[in-house]
Amino acid sequence: MKLLLKLALSAAALLPLGCGESVQLDAASQELLGQILTQVQVAPLAVAHTGNRRVEFHWHGDLSGDPAGGSAPQSFVYRERVEIDGQGRFDLRTTQLMSNAPINWPQFQLQQDIRAGFYQRYRDVQFRDIALVIENFTVAAFGNLLAVAGRPAVGLQLVRKIGEPIRHDLAIDAQTGLVLSARTSGGDGALLAWMEYESIEMGAPATMTPHTFSNDEVVLPPGRELDAVLGFSADLPGILPDGYHLLATAKIEDPAGHIWLKATYTDGIDVAFYVTRPKSQSLAVATAASGAWGTFGVSNPGTSAGPEPHLTTIRIAGIQLLQGETEGRHVITLGRLPLEDLQWMVESVFDG
Amino acid sequence: MEPAHDPLRCTCSVAADATGAPADSLTSGATASAAMAASANMVSGSVGSAAQGGACPGCRARALRDAARAELLSGLSRRRAPVGLDALVQASLHTAPLERALSRLPRYNAPAVLERLVAEEIASPLAASVRRAVGGLPKQRAPGELFASIDLAPRHTSRRVAGVVAAAMGAVALTIVVWIARPPAASEVVAAPGTAISRADRPPLRLQVVHATSLAELDPLARAFAESLAGGMPVALITPQARPR
Lengths: 352, 245
Fold this sequence. Notes:
The structure holds two protein chains of two kinds.
Chain A: H1 2-14, H2 27-46, E1 49-59, E2 74-84, E3 90-97, H3 105-114, H4 116-123, H5 130-136, E4 137-148, E5 151-160, E6 167-173, E7 179-185, E8 191-202, E9 218-219, H6 224-230, E10 245-253, E11 259-266, E12 271-278, E13 310-316, E14 319-326, E15 329-335, H7 339-347
Antiparallel strand pairs in A: 1-2, 1-8, 2-3, 4-5, 5-6, 6-7, 7-8, 9-10, 10-11, 11-12, 12-15, 13-14, 14-15
Helix pairs in contact in A: 1-2
Chain B: H1 13-19, H2 23-27, H3 32-45, H4 47-54, H5 57-74, H6 85-104, H7 112-123, H8 125-134, H9 144-148, H10 159-181, E1 208-211, H11 220-229
Helix pairs in contact in B: 1-3, 4-5, 7-8
């Protein structure tokens, strides 16, 4: 109830600052917004609950992302059951595929189970850095009273100020700060992703098998220790997309046993990755962690397609991927970003 | 002195009735439990037969003493078991099945990284604590005033040394000018890792980018990342189409 009161008060304080316009919050409003966002930030794993939610991704066009190059707008929708014990443990199970897609259901379910940790950390809208959220986003609307999954919620609309004006429409549980609904739209207004609870029961689940991270990820700040764990120098991009900052660096291992550097960046909400390893890297000893990526149906390891050094790109549901080999390294970078931003990230790592 | 009467060795009828076995069987190796049973029977039911006269004086006297003890004991008030004993007994009865169930569960090894993290924590608790607290903080640039406040001018140098220094500085300055004049690569525009550079200041891009024409062109890890960020949507759902940039 404390949060509800705070939300109600802040609605009055923040709304006059403008709807749909880029506005500067005064210090008091920023502090108030910061307090609310902090509660929302910790809620995903701190609020014990069991729920069923719908997850949607939308796109149109082909792999290039050009609407003219592909088919009509399409959707990929499924239901999942989420269980959070409020102590940092969670379980995520995909329960129903709602799209008419030619997918091997048991195989897909297995893949979803394996990737649950990734989804919990990166897939959904979360406030990863409050200062960046305040710096990079405009509060376009706030305080609308909503009802999601039978619970009172408060609407919050955030629009990115720089770069593509990506919009996040959130419904925040008035009592706990849990995000009950999150719609992400591109700069053209097209819906890209939507997560929404369809039912929810507060309190720790009676029985639960928590998800176990199995990718053997080692998170370390940049420095000699990280280099030692990787076995190569963790050279990072010098040019980042506008508004993005480094969130974390880590060592990960792919299914083939290769060691990669994973650098995660954020604009406060969205994430972007820069992943790299030396081309000549000898294989690490394969472990159980090697299967943690859950990629199935891939038979070709993927190599450079021509003699000229080049990068390859695709766009999938608003997410741009750029990958290739350059300067003796495999590089992968992706995010909800323009292609040029990803290319600048890659090229700023290496000498010209 | 008369030896003490031993009912276990006595051959009178009371001793035989009490054990249900011939008296000589007791003398020839009866168990201790049988002897105790005999003694108990004497207390509970053999007084009558002892009093009937079929018993030897020793057994009769012992039967009377035991009867007197039984009467005294039966007069004592009963004491209740301590509060909570029932619960403890119940709990102990249920513990065994729980332990059995737990022992059947599969064992999971701790993640490999745990051992290293614990070792680091033990080896250098202070360093580990500092790393946790400040390791993820972004590096800050020194304010401009700091550089201005540092006096770099040589104070006690001879004219010759000053000349050499001036010439060297001139050469360095010339090198810097030449270096700056050449078109920069992306990696050279960097102020510090993780610092955003405005679009206007970014260098031209030099690598060729090709749109994927088939899924086989994608690294499996790249594909896994893209699919995961899109909630598991298989890339294969999107029709590949050649479109060179």
